[in-house]
Each structure stands twice: as structure tokens, then as C-alpha cells.
Amino acid sequence: MRWLVNLRAFQYLLILPGLVVFILVILTGIYGNPNGAHNLSIVFVWILWWFFLIAFLVPFGSRVWCAVCPIPAAGEWLQRGALIGKPTVERPRGLGLKWPRRLRNIWFSTFFFMGIAIFSIYLTTTPVVTAVLMALLIGLAVAVHLVFEKRTFCKYVCPVGGFLSLYSMTSILEVRARDPTICEAHVGKECVKGSNCGFGCPWMNYPGGLDRNNYCGLCLECVKACPYDNMTVRTRPFGRDLLKPHRETAEAFKSLIMLNLALLYLVVLLGPNAWLKDWASMRAGLPSYLLFVAIFFGSSLLLMPGAFFAFSWLAKRVGGLKGVPVKRVFVTYAYALVPLGLAAWIAFSIPLMQINWAYIPQAAADPYGWGWDLLGLKSFSWNPFLPGLVPFVQASVLLLGLAYSVFIGSRIANELTPDRARARRSFLPIAAYLNLVSLGFLWIFIG
């Protein structure tokens, strides 16, 4: 693995297959069958990619998708002046501006994600809309790379980036320094500046001091650049980053927003009320759609955070946390929601694969939906895999997430007070909140 990672072409070889598929997604979305079930753009992006991203890549690979993502590739290659080798210019191309300090968090990417999510019914069913979105993201990535330094787009702008930043804290994979004292003593800092072997960290991190996954895109340039072979990839227990005392308000709100969106989309797409789906798809008219948008933003930014703030206030009172601001209680305990939120999104994604898996070989054989049979797989018919088990699989995944959220919450309670008895008491309202939200999900899954 070390020999492979140190190849100058390593990341290029990872990106290239995805880039080919990405271009095919855009072409099939524009020129292919407008029926999403018979078009590669919908099937590959919103069934195959989405399921594997949520269910496998994030919990087991952290932000490994960022290492292979083709969206920023063109912009980064233009900025570096190189596809594989060393830069052809002393100074990277573009203006190289720094991203505004106040936006150096996941707020921008969160609102970008929400702005796209309000059109999710169209995105997941209309191939041309998916194609246009992908093309626009590539164009935006190129523009950001030519104006701002390094991978500013991936770190602060990409709508999927904030999602990955939050949930990568649950992952079992990390890039870290073997011995941080070596990094502290070495003045060259090639992992930041680059060397003859590799570019410096494009994510603008100091790899030798990494202690969280949030902004590490696993490009492994630091592994190549380090002259002491001190950077490594290793596994660790699930959710270790959630126990780190580093807390950010933007991440706290993101955990609540994503939890709310998982619940909202389950109600809209899988709930018994078809009129909600009509509102979200604009079939019921513009006024109904605007009401859906109001519910979407209101519940995400006000209702769900407001309810959690009330439980945080209660946690402060029950725990007797004198001198601890409610805001600190709110932000600290919000990290306990992350495992439950990821489990909810995995549960949401399970029917996509379990019910619609047969569309994948069909789309591979006939990507444009023109009647081709390139791989001899066209004969696959729609055949859900054990559909009767879907609710129970969803419930099991959710309960596992709930259990881990309770475990994490009980651990981080000790950050608020050295008195363990008070810490345990303060967590009781948060545990109640976690259980109430889980009951809401379970009601949707199994009634």
C-alpha cells in the first residue's frame, strides 16, 4: 500500500475512472431517456453512489470520496499546472486569495446543500436536472480554484463537503502523524509546503497536527511529501473524533439540520401523506411548494434546534451546571446527535438499494435508455430484494445509531462538569431527546 500511495500518479488514477463516469452521467442526463429509472445519471448518482457514500464510504472510509471526487479535478489541475507531476509554474495559477475568515466553517456549504435539497424531488427523478447540477458544480469548482487558494472549494463551498465533514467524525479511518514530536521538531514542514515527492496539503491543514477528520480529504499528499515517513493511515474506534473537546457552533447546527432533513424527507417521500410529496414536487402549485420550502427551512433552522436548545436548558438545570452557559451545553451535546443522524440517513438510503438494485445493471447495459444491451445485463427485471424486511433493517440501523449516540453523549457530558454525578444527571434530558426523535423515525419505519 505504501508503494502504491507514493506513486506520483496515485490520486490521478483514483480520479480518472470517476471522471469518465461523471462525464457519462452528464451526457446521459442531457441526451438520454428522460425516465429516471432508465437513465444512468439518476441510477448511478442517486441510487448507487448515494447509498455507498452514506452506508459504507463515510463510516468506514471517512472523507475518502474527496480523494476520488472528479468535481474539483479540472480546477485543481489548472491551478497546479500539472495533472500528475510537479507544478509547471513556481506559483500556482490563479489569484490565490484566502477564503474570508468568518466563512471558514461549514455554514456556507450547509446553506448550499439546503438550497439544492429543496429541489431534491426534481434532482432524483429528472436526468437533465442532475446533469445540469453536475456541470454547474464543475464550473463552480474551476472558478473557485482560480480565485482562491488550493482546495477552498472542497473545504468550504462544496454542498456535500459539510455533510462529509460532520459525519467523517464517526469513521474508523484517519490520517495522522506517527510521532507528533517529529513534526514539531522539523522546521521544513514539507507536508504543508510540498516537496520533490508531493504537493503540500491542498486542504490547508497542518497534517502533523491533525486530530480530527473534518477537513482531511485523504488525498495522502502529506504521506508523499513527508521526508521522515511520519504520516500514516490507520484505523481507530468508531466516533473517536466526537470525543475531542474541539466544538464548533456551525457543526452543532449541522448535526441538527441533517437530523431534521432525514426525518423530513422520510415523511415526504415514504410517509402515508401523498399530498406532502405533491407540495415538494410543485405538482400542487407554487403556493404549496413555497409552504413546503417554509417548512423545510423553518423546521431545520428553528424548530429542531429550538427544541434541542430547550432540552439543553433543561440539562443545565437538572445537572446543576452553574456557570456553564446554555449555549455551551447546546453545542457540546449536539455532537451526541451525529451517530443517530448518520444512522437515520443510512436507514433512509436502504430502500434505495434494496428495492431498486436491479436498475443498476440495466443502466450499465443501457446508459442512455435507448434499448442497448452492452453488457448482456438488460434482461434484469425490477425485482426488490426482500422488501418485507426493509422496515426492520431500517429500525435496526437506527437503534444502533441511538445506542452509539447515548454512549457518546454520556462520555462528552464530563466536559461540562468534573462532577460525574452532575454530568450523568445533565445528560438525562438529552437522552430523552434522542429517544423521542428515534421514536419519530421508528413510527415512520414500522408504524
**Helical proportion?**
55-70%
| Portion in beta strands | under 5%
Order of helices and strands: HHHHHHHHHHEHHHEHHHHHHHH
Rg computed from alpha carbons, rounded to a whole number of angstroms = 23 Å
The quaternary state of the protein chains shown equals: single chain
User: How would you sum up the major sheet?
Assistant: 2 strands, antiparallel
Domain count: the total is 2
Biggest sheet, spatial arrangement of strands: 1-2
**Form type:** globular
Count every beta strand, where a strand is a DSSP E run of 2 or more residues.
Answer: 2
What structural class do the secondary elements suggest?
mainly alpha
Low-confidence stretches: none
- Average of per-residue pLDDT values: 91
Total DSSP helices:
21
Protein model, in words:
- This protein has 21 helices and two strands.
- The chain is mainly α and 447 residues long.
- It folds into two domains: 169 residues, no CATH class; 197 residues, no CATH class.
- The protein has a two-stranded antiparallel ribbon with strand order 1-2.
- The chain is globular, with a radius of gyration of 23 Å.
- The termini are far apart.
- The relative contact order is 0.11.
What tags apply to this protein structure?
447 residues, mainly alpha, 2 domains, two-stranded antiparallel sheet, 2 strands
